[in-house]
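Table S2 (text version). Query chain:
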Amino acid sequence: MEEYPYWRRNLWVLWIAQFVSVCGFSLSIPFAPYFIRELAPYASDEQIRFYAALSAFISQLGFATFSPIWGWLADRYGRKKMALRAAFCGTLVLALMGLAQNVVQFILLRALQGILTGTIASSMTLIACTTPQEKQGYALGIFNSSLFSGDMAGLFMGGFMAVNFGFRNSFHISALLVLGTALLILFGAREDFHRVVSPPTVRKTDNSLWHNALLPALPVLLIYALFCLAYFLDQSQIALYVEQLNGGSAQPGRELLTSLTLGAGSLGAMSAGLILSHFIDRNPSRIALLSASIAGLAMLLMALLPRWIPADARVAILENPVTWSALCLIPLRLLMVFFAGGVDTICNTWISKITLPAHRGLIFGFSRTFRGIGTCSGHLTAAAIAPTMGITTLYYIGPLYFFLLTAMILFLRKGITMRVEAVNRLTVTAK
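Corresponding structure-token output:
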């Protein structure tokens, strides 16, 4: 532990920083479909669905393309510097989103968000590189809880902000919160950065970056991409699905229901980070298999259960009459995201443990690329299916991806375990 004197300090500083950052983004970004409708009041419902999916897709495309570049720079110039870059750029982009005058401007700013930000990846890399190997599952699990607890807080406040201050002002409030993140990292996080080189045993055998870093990480990166495809398949449409089950855009309570549904999901993911972090370092593959299977079943129920409830059955919440079919999404979303959050944490732990310290920034950057590939594929699928076959169809396709993910983990888990053991031996030899 003496080699990592700041790991606990960094973990909790970055936990608070990411809680604030994700809270800031979640105040506004999940409500983008409603803001798009405000920017394009004469667009049809099909067009709004397409614009919502396109804006989410282009943001993830930016993340996927530029994350390896930022990761490569992090390995050479410092992980804290990249975390600061992401936070300050996020502040600027969110502030500009609040000034957007039309859909085109908003979509272009979403692209800039993907290109210039990435606070999660940079902070995760900083934690992985300043934490002992045997504590990385625990640290990344705790860190993941900040992402989802911040998301939950932002979503709960976002519905209130949207109703009382408007969607445009919500983006300005988001920018202020992300600015707070930048200041927390600037004054609180520690890094005694020295560029790390690969152990001599690795360089003698093969000096190729492909063989030393990318090829060993590829099985986990493919698992991560498929996970993100399943997990984010409905992300751009969940607000519209809630609205649909609640009776349409003319019915009150959609903002409240959206906040509760997404907030319940964030609560599930936060709980997964806190609970599963104590077990991930012991048997990650078994937890991953169980989690992927149950997440798929919960997503399937999000399509089936609302169909079994009368569409006109309503209950009043905060003086808003909302449907029971929309309310049933709340516990199902919590269940789905709890177990999906476990897979997310395990993938990030595997990525850290199968990668030598000299390449962690780069590989975490590539993990954002594969995350972006999966997420973009999900958004493109949603953009193609939701306007034509309906949003409900996504909740039949998503479970199929989760069950395929279960089979993929089962097939690749032995090779991943062997790579983790090999990296542990190389790290000990280098010391």
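Notes on Table S2: The radius of gyration is 21 Å. Residues 7-195+202-430 form a domain with the Growth Hormone; Chain: A; fold (CATH 1.20.1250.20).
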